[in-house]
Amino acid sequence: MSSPLIGRALVVVGAGIVGASVAYHAARAGAAVTLVDAGRPGGGVTADSFAWVGSFGVLNSPAAGPAAAGLRIGATDEYRRLEAELPGLPVAWTGSLSWRAGESAPEVRPGQEIVDAATAAALEPNLRQPPDWAVWAPGDAAVDSVGVTERLIAGARDHGAQIHPDTPVTAVRRDAEGRVAGVETPAGPLPAATVVLAAGAATAALGAPLGVSVPVDPSPATLFRFHAPAGLVRTLVNTQDFDLRQVAEDRIIAAADSPEHTLAAIRSTFRGAESVELLSSRVGRRPMPADGEPIIGPVAEVPGLYLAVMHAAIALAPTAGRLIAQELVNGSTEPALTRCRLDRF
Q1: Do the Cβ atoms of 281 and 223 come closer than 8 Å?
Q2: Residue 205 to residues 123, 201, 217, 303: CA-CA distances in angstroms?
Q3: How far, rounded to the nearest angstrom, does the alpha carbon of residue 306 sit from its chain's CA centroid?
């Protein structure tokens, strides 16, 4: 790893939840941090996430390789830590309830248990037909992804970080010896000894002029918002039809494929859902590395350049931000990140 960053400037490009976490943890550790984003903090794909932290359902969960799985371990503990450091962090510890109609109960993972229909009905009183079995994960949480991002940025600012929203980065600057020297923006250059690219799918375009190929592409994911009665859904509900949760007294959101099918499934699953109506749908462009694993770490060919790109960013951000800051500020090599390096491609 590189030498410690204390006393040297660090620019983080991208104020989604990952960049905000890196900026907060690095500033808290004593680095001189500047966070820059082309838009508003948390206004990109971070805002389009279902934002489930924990066990990630049961049978239809996306596969996680060893690097992502290793970072997910303890994700809820990392959010508990952030809650203690940043009072008011918008996290709802609702637990999650998952099932698949017509299938047998699976083996459970740590933090999960199989519950019967009576328990499922107690957890979700509005179910029309409680499932014969469900996987209950009481430690799972839902987060307000934009709210968490804003709170991380406020925490970074409290530790001296400079924040530049609505400031697109047009290029990474290098000195005569090829080392990173900062970034270019329409408002002028921002000098730095280290630049962290945490710009999601846009990271590839920023790396290309440097001769750095970052194998990440946008992966579409649709999030539906519905008007719904208060208290319709109590937990994070995961079925073959949707991921569903209540986000406000009169709002629920669903991660699913079809608005018509999702609306019909909600109405058939819950009593009192006849008045549920679709309000909006948005397609988020999740940054998806070619092998699904996070891309985190320094780029040997461009001294001073560091990458932080990953799927499941909401769940991984507190852990990744803390470990990245330790590598940058302390000059350490974190074992949990060694499988995430760009040179595996």
Answers
A1: yes
A2: 46, 8, 10, 18
A3: 18
151: number of Cβ within 10 Å: 23
Distance CA 120, CA 299 (A): 49
Both tokens of 303, joined, read 């001294």
- Which residues in the chain are classed under CATH 3.50.50.60? 9-49+145-216+289-344
The token duo for 65 is 């390789």
Instruction: For residues 197 and 309, give the distance between their C-alpha atoms in angstroms, rounded to a whole number.
Output: 8
Range 9-49+145-216+289-344 has CATH code 3.50.50.60: yes
Q: Which fold has domain 91-140+219-286?
A: D-Amino Acid Oxidase; Chain A, domain 2 (3.30.9)
**pLDDT per residue as tens digits for the range 307-345:** 999 988 999 999 999 999 999 999 999 999 999 999 999
Q: 8: pLDDT confidence band, cut at 50, 70 and 90?
A: confident
Phi, psi (deg, nearest 5) at residue 147 = -60, -40
Question: In terms of DSSP bridges, do strands 96-98 and 236-238 run parallel, antiparallel, or are they unpaired?
Answer: parallel
Q: With beta carbons less than 8 A apart as the criterion, state whether 156 and 33 touch.
A: yes
Taking the C-alpha atoms of residue 241 and residue 161, their distance in angstroms, rounded to an integer, is 43
CB 229 within 8 A of CB 273: yes
Burial class (CB in 10 A: 0-12, 13-18, 19+), 90: middle
pLDDT tens figures, 144-203:
999 999 999 999 999 999 999 999 999 999 999 999 999 999 999 999 999 999 999 999
How far apart are alpha carbons 335 and 345 in whole angstroms?
19
Instruction: Please say whether the dihedral angle defined by the alpha carbons of residues 195, 201, 206 and 212, taken in this order, is positive or negative.
Output: positive
Cβ atoms of 137 and 111 within 8 Å: the answer is yes
Q: Per-residue pLDDT tens for 229-273?
A: 999 999 999 999 999 999 999 999 999 999 999 999 999 999 999
How far, in Å, CA of 247 to CA of 231, rounded?
Answer: 10
